[in-house]
Each structure stands twice: as structure tokens, then as C-alpha cells.
Design the sequence.
């Protein structure tokens, strides 16, 4: 497969940073993608697999390696063993929001609240994307992938992907390597066939975000329209005319902390308990059972706290810049989004990110962790 003329990564990432790679190859089919990856991995040079570029923070220096662009597209509709459901197998390079639009047009429910999220379908399981109470873990059946270690292609069920809050076995967490070095080739989701009629919406978080009561009935199309409008008000829908959208989305993760640490934070700091863990099943031999079943101990749950609240209450408000001349700043609509106001270097954005981390740590004793994958840049 021939190389293409390398394009500056600043033109291919939503944060608009990154130099020109040494080499670039486009893969338009799954077979091409497999062949290219096997080739470049065998050469041993650095490889960056690029989808929509919406979850990357790339440094200013040229990338000394090969960029493989995943441009595969396609949706295959398949039967589901569950009555009233359908499965969609989607190629990794397909736009995520294009998939959501397709599902809504088909009257399929399960991902409509994730409308407007940028990037590709193959990237969605990597950080278990989610919004307004929906996460891909709720509908994901399996992924087809190719492992870097041996170049083998396999199908892996969702239960084996380590999916958690914005994480998976594939995620490059800051300062660590992924548990499984692999590239997703396709994703299979199972969605509910609900049609276009109005219905009561399960999920208190989604109802709250949309201002719906418990018994209010709306269609999946209504949810998509209102989610898109809500995200647009926050500058979270890509728009070339709006510098607030020149970002990688939420730059810092909402922190997961222990219950004890959460109690040290101000009471007004928004927080959400994570799912409590139950003790393992207790087995009591029948011959020793005396009628008493000991109660299961529910351990106190870890707590998710709002990074946006911590930033703003550390004295860093929406639109903040380190200086008037700085081309890097917080979104004027969303305190979690670091934005490129036009021509900002990765160094400028990193300086701003480090400043925010330092202020939050000084004020609350917590180091916020970046959500995007960092390539050639350190915080």
C-alpha cells in the first residue's frame, strides 16, 4: 500500500497541535489496515494509529515514525439473540456521531445520549466513551482487533476488555502503558428496537440532563436533538467557526477518590458514588447451617468528583489564559476544556495544563489526570 504525503498532525487533531510525521499511510479497508499494521510493527519504528484525532495531545516536534490513518467505514446490521434488539457491526474508522445518527434514524436506542461525541467508532471502547448516563459498555457486545505482539486478529467479548470509567485494557493512561497493545478493527453493539414513538426514558441522569420527569415520554430523535444542543452550548460539538471547540474535549478526568478523601473536599463539590462492591458469595455447608445467614457487607464506594468544579474553585474560571497574549486558554463555555485559540503550540497548552494541575493540587490536595493520550508531550 503506497504511502501518502504526510500531513501536519495539527491539521488532523481537534486540539490542532502536532508536527509533520516522518511517514503516513492511509488504510481504507480492514484488510488494508491489518496488512499495514503488520508491516509497520515488524519494522520496529514508532507507530501512531490515528482515527478522528479528538483524544490526542501531540507535541510540536515532528513525529519520528509512521502515522497510520484508520479510514475504514461501514455498518452491518445483524440479528440479535435478544427479542426486540438488533446488532450493528461497525468498522473502526466510521465516525461515532455518524453511527449515532444512523441508529436514531433506524429507531434504535442505547447510544442516542452520546450524540455529538467526536472521533471514530474504533476509539469509543478504548476509553469507554459516555455521556448523560449512557456508556458504550452498556451496549458493546464484542470487538474485532489485531494484537501488536503477534499480529493476530481475534474477536474479544466486552467482558474481557476491562471497561470502567473512561478506561479499558487499551487505554494509554498518562505515565503508563496499556494492558493490551492492540488496534480495534470493528465494534459490535446491541441496540434496542424502539422505533420513533415517544416513550418514558430510563436513567435518572439522562432525564435530569434533559429536564425530563420520570414519566415524560420522548423519542430517540428528540433526545439526540437536545443532547446536540446541550453540547453545542458547552462548545463540545466541533465547529470551525468556534475556537471553544478547538479542544480534545474534557482535558482532565473527573477524579475517582476514596470516601475518606472525598470527605476532605468542600461539601458543595459535586460527587457521585461509584458502584459499591459486594463481598463474594458466602457458601455455608448444609450440615453446619443453623438458620443464620450473615449479612453481606457492602463496602463504602469510591467517589467520582467534578474536575470542572475543582478547577473553577481553585480560582481558574472559564476563558482563563496565563496572559492576554497566550493562544491557549480554557473554553469560555466549559472549564474542563483546554482550547487552542488559534496557532497555539503544544508547549503553550502544556504550560496551561500544568498550571491548572498545580492550582488544584495546592487548593485541594488532588492531582488532576489528563484524559487525552499524550504523544511527544509531558505534563
Sequence:
Amino acid at each position: 500500500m503506497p504511502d501518502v504525503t504526510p500531513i501536519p498532525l495539527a491539521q488532523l487533531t481537534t486540539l490542532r497541535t502536532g508536527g509533520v510525521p516522518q511517514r503516513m499511510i492511509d488504510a481504507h479497508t480492514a484488510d488494508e489496515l491489518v496488512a499495514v499494521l503488520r508491516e509497520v510493527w515488524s519494522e520496529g519504528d514508532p507507530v501512531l494509529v490515528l482515527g478522528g484525532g479528538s483524544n490526542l495531545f501531540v507535541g510540536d516536534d515532528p513525529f519520528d515514525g509512521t502515522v497510520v490513518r484508520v479510514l475504514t467505514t461501514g455498518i452491518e446490521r445483524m440479528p440479535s439473540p435478544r427479542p426486540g434488539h438488533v446488532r450493528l457491526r461497525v468498522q473502526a474508522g466510521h465516525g461515532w456521531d455518524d453511527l449515532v445518527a444512523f441508529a436514531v434514524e433506524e429507531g434504535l436506542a442505547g447510544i442516542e445520549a452520546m450524540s455529538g461525541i467526536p472521533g471514530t467508532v474504533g476509539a469509543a471502547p478504548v476509553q469507554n466513551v459516555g455521556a448523560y448516563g449512557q456508556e458504550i459498555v452498556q451496549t458493546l457486545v464484542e470487538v474485532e482487533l489485531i494484537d501488536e505482539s503477534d499480529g493476530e486478529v481475534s474477536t474479544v467479548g466486552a467482558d474481557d476488555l476491562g471497561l470502567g470509567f473512561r478506561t479499558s485494557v487499551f487505554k494509554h493512561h498518562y505515565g503508563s502503558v496499556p494492558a493490551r497493545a492492540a488496534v480495534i478493527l470493528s465494534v459490535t453493539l446491541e441496540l434496542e428496537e424502539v422505533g420513533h414513538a415517544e416513550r418514558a426514558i430510563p436513567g435518572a441522569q439522562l432525564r435530569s440532563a434533559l429536564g425530563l420527569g420520570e414519566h415524560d415520554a420522548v423519542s430517540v430523535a428528540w433526545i439526540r436533538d437536545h443532547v446536540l444542543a446541550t453540547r453545542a452550548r458547552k462548545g463540545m460539538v466541533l465547529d470551525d467557526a468556534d475556537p471553544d471547540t478547538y479542544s480534545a474535549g474534557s482535558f482532565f478526568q473527573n477524579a475517582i477518590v476514596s470516601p475518606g478523601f472525598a470527605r476532605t473536599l468542600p461539601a458543595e463539590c459535586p460527587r457521585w458514588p461509584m458502584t459499591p462492591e459486594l463481598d463474594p458469595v458466602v457458601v455455608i455447608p448444609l450440615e453446619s447451617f443453623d438458620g443464620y445467614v450473615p449479612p453481606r457487607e457492602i463496602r463504602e464506594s469510591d467517589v467520582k468528583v467534578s474536575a470542572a468544579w475543582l478547577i473553577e474553585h481553585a480560582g481558574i474560571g472559564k476563558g482563563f489564559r496565563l496572559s492576554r497574549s497566550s493562544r491557549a486558554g480554557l473554553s469560555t463555555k466549559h472549564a474542563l476544556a483546554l482550547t487552542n485559540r488559534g496557532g497555539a503550540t503544544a508547549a503553550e497548552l502544556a504550560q496551561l495544563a500544568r498550571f491548572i494541575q498545580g492550582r488544584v493540587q495546592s487548593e485541594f490536595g488532588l492531582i488532576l489526570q489528563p484524559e487525552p493520550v499524550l504523544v511527544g508531550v509531558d505534563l
Q: What stands out?
A: The mean pLDDT is 92.
